[in-house]
Known about the structure:
Oligomer: single chain
CATH class: Alpha Beta
Number of helices: 11
Number of strands: 8
Order of helices and strands: HEHEHHEHEHEHHEHEEHH
CATH architecture: Alpha-Beta Barrel
Shape: globular
Bound molecules: 3-methyl-2-oxobutanoic acid
CATH superfamily: Phosphoenolpyruvate-binding domains
Amino acid sequence: MAKPEPNKTISLQTFRDLKQKGEKFAALTSYEATLSSMMCDAGVELILVGDSLGMVIQGHDSTVPVSMEDILYHLRCVKSGNKGAHLMADMPFMSYATEQLAYENATRLMQAGANSVKVEGGEVILKITELLSERGIPVCAHMGLTPQSINRIGGFFVQGRDPSSHSKIIEEALSLESAGAELLLLECIPDELTKKIAEVVKIPTIGIGAGLETDGQIMVVHDMLGVSCLEKPPKFVKNFLAQNNSIFEAIKDYVRSVKSSSFPAKEHWFD
Ligand code: KIV
């Protein structure tokens, strides 16, 4: 396997081209400059300033308390260290509850340096996806397990296990694509469902706990470095630092593993 090249400027077209060529891309969350810079040198193509910061940085038990100011602060930190990765910023809980809020908050993220924004949901985010894309704001639709709805879902459970729910999720994915979504992030769904979605949508897909059939993979950086307060990490997590001598080597190993499809392995998927 070739050594990952430090990335240049990665655009949405890069992800489309990689998809076209059947090449995988590697994404990680980051919340600060130094690790972001290291990620770029290691070949990470997409950095997400995720609202997971509410859990891994702020110590909350969900992403719900994260504010726009929190995301903006960490986005600025990441931007300082970024050397050309695509920068995606999460729109936090309720920051896109109305069209007006979505416009205002997505604008703030783009003006602070994001290249795209991520919003959670299916049908419920269709209109917002359409409005933002029409105005030139690339949207990544986050489907499957949507952590901002954790209080309704009742826990961090795998979604879409019931085959009867598959057609609804697939239809939602297609509608989001038609509404202008540029990327689809699939979290904690069975590999079988991911496969069905990947067969019908044309936009690049990114997976976390969604098997091997997505075009890219993403992990929370703390998880891939084995930094966790949890007694048992989720099934889809792999600690890459455990088998490497430095954080930089661990990130390079993650990139290599994603690109060669050796991560995620079967033990990280859900049936
Ligand atoms: O906020 C986050 O870290 C996420 C993960 C699913 C990557 O959305």
